[in-house]
Amino acid sequence: MDTRKVLLILISLAILLQSSQLADASVQDECKIVTAADPNVDYNFCVTSLQADPTSGSADAKELAIIAANLTVANATSTLSKIEKLYKDVVTAASGAIKAISSGSLGDAKKHLTEASDKPQDCDNLLFEAGKNSLLTKEDNDCTNLASIAQYIVAKLQ
């Protein structure tokens, strides 16, 4: 192989490595800016979250803001699913009460309605039981932090 080809390959490789390091530095730089603006956002959380997206390594600030916003949507969707499961029993019980009332089974209707009225309190007890953290504390904190990351990157872009 001639020397020019080897030199061209080495230069190309060096440029690729440099741009990869710059992109990683971009994630780190953006996270430094975010955590300086909002000390409630953990630097490692910011870096780890953004780097979870495989495109973050080559992303500019605008793309990192989009990644953070997408992560916020994913987090909120997952949390919504958990809450939905907690209230599904209320829907089932209330639907059973409707059927029971319609068919004249008022005793069954009363049982279903008692269950429907108790379930929100059960949910509340799970979420905010005295002396314990909310069932959704991690999800709440992650959602807040992810939205803050996107917010501060967007603010910087303005």
Our measurement of the CA-to-CA distance between the termini, rounded to an integer number of angstroms, reads 50 Å
Q: Uncertain runs with pLDDT below 50, 5 residues or more?
A: 16-24
In the CATH hierarchy, what is the architecture at level 2?
Up-down Bundle
Individual helix count = 5
Global morphology: elongated
Please give the number of β-strands. Answer: 0
Largest sheet: none
The total number of structural domains is 1
- What name does CATH use for the topology? Butyryl-CoA Dehydrogenase, subunit A, domain 3
Cα radius of gyration in angstroms: 26 Å
Q: What portion of residues belong to β-strands? A: under 5%
Secondary-structure element order, as H and E? HHHHH
- What fraction, in percent, of the residue positions are helical? over 70%
CATH class: Mainly Alpha
GO molecular function, one term: enzyme inhibitor activity
Keywords: Disulfide bond, Signal
Protein name: Pectinesterase inhibitor domain-containing protein
InterPro entries: Invertase/methylesterase_inhib, Pectinesterase_inhib_dom, Pla_a_1-like
Description:
The chain is elongated. It has one domain (about 5-155): Up-down Bundle (Butyryl-CoA Dehydrogenase, subunit A, domain 3), CATH 1.20.140. It starts with a helix and ends with a helix. The chain contains five helices and no strands. The longest helix is centred in the middle third of the chain and has 43 residues, at about 60-105. Helix 1 packs across helix 2 and helix 3 runs antiparallel to helix 4. It is an all-alpha fold and about 160 residues long.
